[in-house]
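Lab manual, section 2.4: Encoding a predicted structure.

Procedure: take the sequence of the chain (155 residues), apply the prediction step described in section 2.3, and record the output as structure tokens. A sample record is shown.
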Amino acid sequence: MINLLAEMFLHPILIVSLVSAGASQFIKMLLYSFKTKKLLIHVLWKGYGNKAGMPSSHTAFMSAACTAIYILDGGVTNLFMLSIIFTIIIIQTVVDLKFHFDKASEYINGMFEVVFDFSKPAWSKFEHVTGHTYNQIIVGAIIGIYTTIKLMPIL
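Recorded output:
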């Protein structure tokens, strides 16, 4: 049982995926720290807002896994194609979240504008940070692929 757990946790696919997601979160922390002009270390484990932001750690994690599978299996295999399908589903889900939350925000803000005067400092519009833009996904994929290409020869 211990050998199985060690084999799982020390597997190159998991290692490069976790390193890629960690690198993505670190870059996210740096970007938001520069933006706010204060060190936001909590972004490393909590994300920014509701786990969104630049770059996408979900995409970095999954693209690293896909790249590692491609390298380990030696090309386009059934497992590689399955990993691509799961990655597309995950990416589409975070994009859909952004779309639906954007629509909900517009609706809620429209309802509140009837009741509240947003020009007064006491009131502010409903904001959200959920889901990812395509730019955040592209940068996350680049981080995942690059990290895996650099780490796989070491592992």
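Check your result against the sample. The chain has a mean pLDDT of 84.
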